[in-house]
From TrEMBL:
Residues 263-315 form the FHA domain. The keyword Phosphoprotein applies. SUPFAM superfamilies: SMAD/FHA domain (SSF49879). This is FHA domain-containing protein. Keywords: Phosphoprotein. Residues 210-236 are annotated as: Disordered. It comes from the Bacteria. The keyword Phosphoprotein applies. Signal peptide: none annotated.
């Protein structure tokens, strides 16, 4: 049982991030883990985060949807969590996958404002509409509540039941145009990598500057939300393009492409940071698609795709699915990704810019809770 729960927590770990290009909603972890009515279980459970992530995935009809979690520091020693869950949250903190704060205040709303993301919360945020006017917009604040097949979203504020995004706020756009450096050694959010926290030996990723979270503003000064220290400006942030993989008509994963950091995509690329498609492919597609099938690069703002496969790829110009329009991309050939273009690795396996690729088939997302023991998944009777 313990082992199974560990596997679910590992799966959930793949769905928490503070990367401004990839996060799709903001949550307060201290709030989410106490929604006991979602499963009728223990007073606090980290698995509820998985249930909420699944609900978000169902709502926006995409797999692999990550959330931006704000974590009150007290949670790292919360006795209502199991020791395993506490260790997992500490690991997320040390890896910079979540934001751990002594005084979260309205950081959740600040992040939602800067990044233009919806907030998943049962709070009503009374009296905060003046500071954050978008709180009144439909879909910007949704409360996950028990539903027949898992949590569903209702509005306590602003109306709507579908998560809505907005553009980054002007301040957010400005902050995210620069990279920032925290003077605190081993800062997991604004460090140069290397770690140094209490669990630094468990830290596995160095923070890429392009994926840095938005600083918090204190009296107009960019500040580390974790350490409260003034951040140094470390120059322009590398440009980023967000691409999405669609398989069988469903968006399976988004990934960020940064200048000077090519990303291989294929059945099972052996490079760190490569996008692994194997889990979503049928036998024929697995046979056709090479381990590393195509490589994406961002150069001077243009997305360049290079075929690295045995069998070649195709380009669907402007997303056209008409066969005469399809352009072959032979092995080793490169091409600039034009507006709306989709790269096709195999029929039904396509990659394009995230804002130009949507799910167009009946969607049945892969649950992050697939490994959950039935006990943890028990739903309350209506
Ligand atoms: Zn810091």
């Amino acid at each position: 049982m313990r082992f199974e729960i560990s596997k679910v927590l590992d799966a959930i770990e793949g769905r928490v991030c503070t990367d401004p290009s990839l996060a799709r909603a903001v949550v307060d972890l201290a709030e989410v883990i106490r929604w006991q009515d979602l499963d009728g279980g223990r007073p606090a459970s980290l698995l509820r985060l998985g249930m909420v992530i699944d609900a978000l995935s169902r709502q926006i009809e995409e797999d692999s949807v990550p959330v931006y979690a704000i974590v009150h520091r007290a949670l790292l020693s919360d006795a209502d969590l199991t020791s395993n869950e506490r260790m997992v949250v500490r690991r997320w903190a040390d890896d910079g996958l979540v934001e751990v704060l002594d005084h979260p205040g309205d950081r959740m709303l600040e992040v939602a404002d800067l990044l233009g993301l919806p907030v998943l919360s049962r709070a009503r945020f009374d009296g905060l509409g003046g500071r954050w006017p978008w709180l009144g917009q439909a879909g910007r604040v949704l409360a996950p509540v028990p539903g027949a097949g898992g949590p569903v979203f209702i509005a306590h504020v602003g109306g709507g039941h579908t998560p809505a995004t907005a553009s980054r706020s002007p301040v957010g756009a400005k902050l995210l145009a620069r990279q920032w450096r925290c003077p605190e050694p081993g800062c997991a959010l604004f460090g140069g990598g290397g770690g140094g926290g209490a669990f630094a030996d468990l830290a596995r990723v160095d923070r890429a500057p392009a994926g840095q979270p938005p600083p918090t503003l204190r009296n107009g000064v960019p500040t580390c939300p974790r350490h409260g220290t003034r951040l140094g400006d470390a120059g322009p942030r590398p440009r980023t393009a967000v691409l999405a993989v669609r398989i069988g008509g469903m968006v399976r994963q988004r990934f960020a492409l940064t200048e000077n950091q090519p990303v291989p995509v294929g059945r099972a690329p052996d490079t760190t940071g490569g996008i692994v498609l194997g889990q979503w492919l049928n036998d024929e597609a697995r046979r056709w698609i090479s381990r590393s099938h195509v490589r994406f690069e961002l150069r001077v703002g243009e997305v360049i795709v290079t075929d690295t496969s045995t069998n070649g790829s195709g380009v669907r110009p402007g997303g056209s699915m008409a066969e005469p329009d399809r352009i072959a991309l032979a092995p080793q050939q490169s091409r600039v990704l034009g507006d709306g273009d989709l790269i096709e690795l195999y029929p039904g396996v396509q990659i394009g810019r995230a804002d130009e690729v949507t799910s167009d088939a009946k969607f049945s997302p892969t649950s992050v809770m697939a490994e959950a023991p039935t006990m943890a998944m028990r739903l309350p009777r209506p």
